[in-house]
Structure formats: structure tokens, C-alpha cells
Amino acid sequence: MSNALEHPLAAAIKPLLDAVGATAVEPAEAKVEDVVLEWDGAPVVAVRLPHLSSALDRLLAEMTRAFDGRPLTELDRAEKQRVVALLEERGAFTVRHGVETVASALGVSRFTVYNYLNRQEKG
């Protein structure tokens, strides 16, 4: 039997998996929480989704890349507000301790992050 990870479906979804931090596994190795994808009615690849905490880490890394690789703590106030707005759009604050994690990454207080969020809602 061929390697499921070499199947055309696995190749097609690889960029998506990389973007969200998921991994492809053989269907026989799938856990209950994995999503098994089928091709012509047969399971060909299972997708293992990341934990939410690692998703927040990936979002923060994405923000660093979006601001030319500069450490988030070195951004000016307007840029930090933009980071908070982008993270809010992506659901970063639905993760437990999301505000604390983002505040730490930005080098500001939780109170400041909440102020940025409140300002965004009013604006």
C-alpha cells in the first residue's frame, strides 16, 4: 500500500496545513480528535489540528513577520494597536490567557491591551 502522505490530496492540502500548524498523518495512526479525509470513499490522510495555545504562538510569529521581523516589543503605539486589531480579527483573544500572552509579547500591560480593544470597538 502506498504512503498516504504522498497522496495527491495530502499534497494539495499541505500549504493549508502549514499555514494553520496542522500535520498530516496516516489514517491508521489517526486519533479520535483527528480529521480523516477521504478520496473516492476511502480514507487517505488524517489531519491533526494544533492546540489553541500553539495557534496563538503562530499568530504572534505572523505579526512579527508582518512588521518586517521587528520584535513586537519594539513597535510604536500605533503599530501595537494594529497588532491587537489584527489579532482580534483572527480570534486570538478567545484563547485562555490570550490577553496576558499578547500583552507579554508586546511588552505592555493587560490593561493596555484591553484599552486597545476598547478603542477599537468604539472606533
Automatic annotation (TrEMBL):
Source organism: Kitasatospora paracochleata
InterPro entries, per database record: DauR-like (IPR039446), DauR-like_HTH (IPR039445)
Protein name per its UniProtKB record: CRP-like cAMP-binding protein
Transmembrane stretches, start-end: none
Domain of life: Bacteria
Domain Transcriptional regulator DauR-like HTH: 62-118
Lineage, broadest ranks: Bacteria, Bacillati, Actinomycetota, Actinomycetes, Kitasatosporales
